[in-house]
Amino acid sequence: MGEGHSHASMESAGGRHRRPLAIAFALTASYMVVEFIVGFSVNSLALISDAAHMGTDVIGLGLALAAVTLAARKTSTQRTYGLYRLEVLAALANGVLLFGVAGFVLFEAIRRFGDPPTVPGMPLLITAVIGLAINLVSFRLLMSGSKESLNVRGAYLEVLGDLIGSVGVIVAAIILATTGWPYADPIIGVGIGLFILPRTWKLTRQALRILLEAAPEGVDVERITADVAAIPGVEAVHDLHIWTITSGMDSASGHVVVAKGADYESVLTEVQAVLRDRHNIAHATIQCEPVAFGETRGPI
């Protein structure tokens, strides 16, 4: 059986991600309340939508923080893979929440085009500038972790979307303060909603691929099968499965038919080396079988 990512390494990764997630969660939750209060008091859809997006950030960051904390717990006899899939479930929940927010913003913006309310520019501008600063801090905190964890990447994308949303609110506030044009607010609201959608779809699709145990994106299963079959001493390859357990933890299992006279240990070592070095799959469970084994059991 192949060597894989150890629980200790995943646990240390969880520790690295937990602190920035906790800080980003606290900052975002605090300012979300401020944005909601100001947004409803001045009747600004752009600011309300940005606050609602911040609300999904708060939920998403909370889910991500909980998932990282729980995934670091020791495995049990009933959960042999631990709780690693929690981060994928959290990422999927983030995606669903973001779809909901985008839908609300788009619906409300379209409704307001018929009768745009009067929105004062300066309170909007001050609130949005502070919100932008909060988002920049959270964005910086989550940047490195987003490259290692799908869960943290989901939170990172939410903060990125909210950061852009804050810029949009600032633009709307400047237009309102200088020209008083009432359509600036709902137009920016639509822009924020549309900005959320493609990133949300990408995150949701990635989480669903993992939950459906599809081969990781960019992994060519046929090519891997051919590379393993080309190893000296390998007669055939069958029942090869490749899937992702959690971010950065791809796994494989398969059966290798060993040619007569070939050394089982050498073949197994070479198969693991091909999977690890050529295809970046370090956690592999390979069963070696003699040619006669297949002949005895017949076709499957």
UniProtKB/TrEMBL annotation:
UniProt topology in membrane: Multi-pass membrane protein
Q: Which UniProt keywords apply?
A: Ion transport, Membrane, Transmembrane, Transmembrane helix, Transport
Stretches that traverse the bilayer: 21-42, 54-72, 84-110, 122-143, 155-177, 183-201
* Annotated ranges, domain Cation efflux protein cytoplasmic: 216-290
GO MF term (any one):
zinc ion transmembrane transporter activity
Which SUPFAM superfamilies is this protein grouped with? Cation efflux protein cytoplasmic domain-like, Cation efflux protein transmembrane domain-like
Q: Where is the Cation efflux protein transmembrane domain?
A: 22-212
Compartments, record wording: Membrane
Query: Can you cite an annotated GO cellular component?
Result: plasma membrane
Name of one Pfam family that matches: ZT_dimer
In the record, the note on similarity to other proteins reads: Belongs to the cation diffusion facilitator (CDF) transporter (TC 2.A.4) family. SLC30A subfamily.
What is the name of this protein? Cation transporter
